[in-house]
Write a structure and sequence with these properties.
The protein is of the alpha+beta class and 470 residues long. It has 4 domains: 1-28; 34-132, Histone Acetyltransferase, domain 1 (Alpha-Beta Complex); 138-287, 3-Layer(aba) Sandwich (Aminopeptidase); 306-458, no CATH class. 42% of the residues lie in helices and 20% in strands. It has 15 helices and 16 strands. The strands form 5 sheets. The protein has a 6-stranded mixed sheet. The N and C termini lie far apart (89 Å). Residues 231-283 form the N-acetyltransferase domain. This is histone acetyltransferase.
Length: 470
């Protein structure tokens, strides 16, 4: 019995020693802080009941960078920051809770002040927030009533399979904000606090600048009283640039669909509406400011489908036949004629660079992809095109060359400069590294092409199944 007591006493002594060591180690290193993303959650709620419901699904923010603290908050244990947005008015309420707070060498972050700066406005208290579910239920309708409708979608235009409990009388509209309307400006200022939370590197735009346009996607749900309930689904912002000599080009800056309405085709509708706007206003073309990978994917497959018309199909067949007549892979870059590029820009407002990406996918969609020889030729052509883009269009003059050294098994790559310039010699090791990098670029591009092609075919695209031959 005594032996067991001694053993238990020794165990407790060891445990206490470990605890003291851990405490001393933590004190020595100070407070390591907590990443803001780890303690912030965003909730979109329609009523007070949803605030308290266990089924209320939170949204995690994108990476949030503090000024000098690497995105960290200091001085708190078990910190939770829940940010609630009323989807009927976009008022926000912030609930901050923690078990304890203590300065362990890095100070104590003023969380309330920081959140206020992050949201760009002072959060209202809980009682006022709850009152907004009733007092501000007409907020969105009032804000958008004076806006210009860019595009209208009836029930038949809406993919009902992607939207649960849809009313057959519901409609979706994309509406341009009336910047002179006070209620519209107020609504934008409220939900603009979501931009840095949900768009990485995103910032609200200056709505006082007349070149900026804000476009709302809104769902109208009829009621028995005859007045429709408005739900703001998302928005897009775009800037109008001057284009010499007498036109403008539209640059889309942000597209955000709010989390409760994502994966329901609303981003697609916003993009369609921006394209319709560009055509109706006869802009020179449409470009994007640093689009995300998903937005680039969405934009590309939409535009590939838009390119399914006679002029394009004839040019594709001409390109494929020309590829079969050519004896040199290097000369097959699958480029449309300049007149076709200009015709597409004029008709669809596609920027040249983006059109050429879509063109490459159209070629891929129209060849016999089950034929290995056909696919090998396409990949070889893609490799040459990317090599030309990366190393220079004319690899026989300026640009880079690979030359076999006589009486040796090695190669050198050198960059040709202008007359009188010294050539840059690159040894075999660097050449191998460059080739591996190029192979990775081709592999990544093929993956993108294949993913978009699958989506295009799922939307009913019909392939020519053309056979490319060596």
């Amino acid at each position: 019995m005594e032996g067991e007591v001694v053993k238990e006493l020794k165990r407790k002594i060891v445990e206490n020693a470990v605890e003291r060591f851990s405490a001393e180690k933590k004190s020595k290193h100070g407070d390591t802080g907590v990443m803001a993303n780890e303690c912030i959650q965003i909730f979109f709620v329609n009523s007070i009941d949803e605030m308290n419901a266990a089924t209320c699904v939170p949204t995690d923010p994108v990476f949030i960078q503090f000024d000098d603290d690497n995105g960290k908050i200091y001085g708190y244990k078990d910190l939770k920051i829940n940010i609630y947005f009323n989807v009927n008015s976009f008022h926000s309420y912030v609930d901050i809770s923690f078990q304890s707070k203590k300065d362990d060498g890095k100070g104590i972050t003023d969380v309330k002040y920081w959140v206020q700066n992050l949201l760009g406005t002072e959060s209202i208290d809980k009682k006022v927030f709850i009152d907004t579910f009733i007092s501000e239920d007409h907020c969105i309708r009032d804000a958008l009533s004076s806006g210009l409708i860019i595009r209208h979608y009836s029930f038949q235009d809406i993919n009902s399979e992607s939207i649960a409990n849809i009313d057959i009388n519901s409609t979706i509209e994309v509406v341009q904000m009336n910047s002179s309307c006070d209620s519209s400006r107020l609504l934008y200022n409220r939900f603009s606090s979501l931009i840095p939370l949900l768009i990485e590197g995103g910032e609200p735009v200056d709505i006082d600048d007349p070149c900026w346009g804000i476009y709302f996607a809104v769902k109208k749900i009829p009621t028995e009283s005859g007045e429709a309930v408005y739900k703001l689904l998302g928005f897009a912002s775009a800037y109008q640039f001057y284009h010499y000599p007498d036109s403008s080009r539209l640059r889309i800056s942000q597209i955000l669909v709010f989390p409760p309405y994502q994966r329901q085709g609303n981003g697609h509708r916003l993009l369609e509406s921006m394209n319709s706007l560009a055509i109706s206003k006869n802009y020179h073309d449409v470009t994007f400011e640093d689009p995300s990978d998903y937005l680039q994917y969405l934009r590309t497959y939409i535009d590939v489908l838009r390119l399914d018309f006679e002029c394009i199909n004839s040019e594709i067949i001409s390109n494929l036949k020309k590829a079969n007549r050519s004896k040199s892979i290097e000369k097959i870059l699958f480029r449309p004629q300049p007149c076709v590029v200009e015709a597409v820009r004029e008709k669809l407002k596609l920027h040249k660079k983006h059109f050429l990406r879509c063109w490459e996918i159209l070629i891929f969609c129209n060849i016999d992809r089950k034929n290995k020889t056909c696919m090998d030729k396409f990949i070889a052509c893609l490799m040459e095109r990317l090599k030309a883009d990366i190393l220079g269009k004319d690899t026989s003059t300026n640009g880079k060359r690979v030359v076999k050294v006589e009486n040796d098994t090695t190669f050198v790559m050198y960059k040709c400069g202008l007359a009188g310039e010294k050539a840059e010699v690159i040894d075999e090791e660097k050449h191998i590294a460059l080739q591996e990098s190029l192979d990775q670029v081709v592999e990544q591009r093929m993956k993108q092409i294949d993913e978009i092609a699958k989506k295009v075919f799922s939307m009913g695209f019909k392939s020519l199944n053309f056979d490319l031959k060596y």
